[in-house]
């Protein structure tokens, strides 16, 4: 397969979904956003506790993340809901969304003279967008347009031996055979493996940037008095047999394969158009990491899990793969692809890669993931500093 069926956007991107998102600019608009999405079928609420009393670096990161979801390839249009005069300006956000050719609306609770009026306006705007989106049809598009997001979740001893290898095989198939992109993250989980990882950089500048980012995270964590080396692996990782952060890191890096790394980019930054593998600088916290990769524009996410996980994203479909037969049995509604036969049976890693590839091509062309059918999603923007 060299083509998929997707939704064309005016900015040249192609989506594998056609969502209308309702975005809060601050926590005081969250309830209105949630109520709007409850009323309007197929509307996705994006709520968070940020957007107010933040320092400039955090304001920029919050804004960039929200804009990333509003202009994501899988997003048709966006309704922005603000509470009053916020540091994340709703009108500005709506204008930046409209600049990409997507329909957008800006609703301000104070300017609407209260929650009920704002809710009425938000529902009207969302309803129109959802209806218009439903009339759009998929068209053939080249696989080179696709970006493959990668993340771990509750890793165990099976992760680096099985499902991470299948994930690596699939992402590099997209890159090498179709000219697409891959993006992985979780910088603190490079600890102990950063030198090996940096040797894959395309040049010395990228190599040094990888090492500098890892050192930055180490210093940042140490400055809090928190020794990550004493807190990692996490309890669920240890339940799965992992013993040290170095063991966890080396296993986690398996999912990125062994090909060249083009660059390391900031949290929520747009993933470059050039084909190849990229790193996004995110925390190891799964919800924050996945949220960042989604903001960067990844079309879909493969979450490679050992013990099973509910981690999901509503805008960027998440495909969960495991090679642990006990996890596949324990949380079947969280297991899109079970490749445990490659670990405990007679199948090969190549077979596991083929199984994942078949599933992701179905998802790209419209098949819902298990988390999509259940309406599961977590949204968590990583913050840099304290509230003011």
TrEMBL record:
<dbReference type="InterPro" id="IPR052172">
    <property type="entry name" value="UxaA_altronate/galactarate_dh"/>
</dbReference>
<dbReference type="InterPro" id="IPR007392">
    <property type="entry name" value="GD_AH_second"/>
</dbReference>
<protein>
    <submittedName>
        <fullName>UxaA family hydrolase</fullName>
    </submittedName>
</protein>
<keyword id="KW-0378">Hydrolase</keyword>
<dbReference type="InterPro" id="IPR048332">
    <property type="entry name" value="GD_AH_C"/>
</dbReference>
<feature type="domain" description="D-galactarate/Altronate dehydratase second">
    <location>
        <begin position="6"/>
        <end position="133"/>
    </location>
</feature>
<dbReference type="GO" id="GO:0016787">
    <property type="term" value="F:hydrolase activity"/>
</dbReference>
<comment type="similarity">
    <text>Belongs to the UxaA family.</text>
</comment>
<dbReference type="Pfam" id="PF04295">
    <property type="entry name" value="GD_AH_second"/>
</dbReference>
<dbReference type="GO" id="GO:0016829">
    <property type="term" value="F:lyase activity"/>
</dbReference>
<keyword id="KW-0456">Lyase</keyword>
<feature type="domain" description="D-galactarate/Altronate dehydratase C-terminal">
    <location>
        <begin position="143"/>
        <end position="386"/>
    </location>
</feature>
<dbReference type="Pfam" id="PF20629">
    <property type="entry name" value="GD_AH_C"/>
</dbReference>
